[in-house]
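To whoever picks this up:

The nightly regression suite flagged DUF937 domain-containing protein as changed. Nothing in the input moved, so I suspect the structure step. Input below, exactly as stored in the fixture:
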Amino acid sequence: MGLFFDVLQAINNPNQQGSVSQLESITRSVQQATSNQGIDAGTTQSLISALGGFLQPALQQQQSMMGKNQLETLLGRFGAGTTTASASTVSALFPPQMQQQMIQTIAQKTGISSNILGSILPLLIPAVLGLLGMGAKTTGTGGGNPLLSAFLNSSGNTDLGDVFKFANRFLSPV
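Regenerated output under the current build:
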C-alpha cells in the first residue's frame, strides 16, 4: 500500500505531474484491456502483480545501464498518466526477447494464455509506466521522480496489483 500512498502524494503535489484524471484514465485502460479479453478483476490484479514483479528488476537493470536521468527521460516518453506509447519506446526498454520472456513468465504465474498476454501487454506496459510517470516533476521544478524511485528502490515487496486495487477503490468509493 506504500506505493499507492506515493501515487496519492504525486496527485496532491503541484510539483508532480499526477492527477486524479490521469489515474482514472490509467485504471480504465487496464480494465478495458483485460475485460475485452474476458479477464475478471481478481485475475487482472494477479496479472498486474506479475507484470510489476517483472518490470521492477527490468527497470532496475535499465537504470544501472542508462543511469537514472536517462531512464526517467525515456519513461517520460510515456507521459504522466498516458496509456499509449510507441512500440519503439516499449522495445527500447524491453527488447523483443525480454518481452517474450515476460509473456511466458506471466502466463505461468496467472494461467492466462500467452496469446492473450501478447495482445494485452502492449496496452498494459504503457499504462503501468504511465502510472509511475505520475511522479515526474512538473516542468521547471527540477529533480527526479520519487514515485519511480520508490518503485525501483523497494525490496521486491511493491505489488502493483495492490496499487491498482487501491486506485480502483479510491476512484470508486462505496
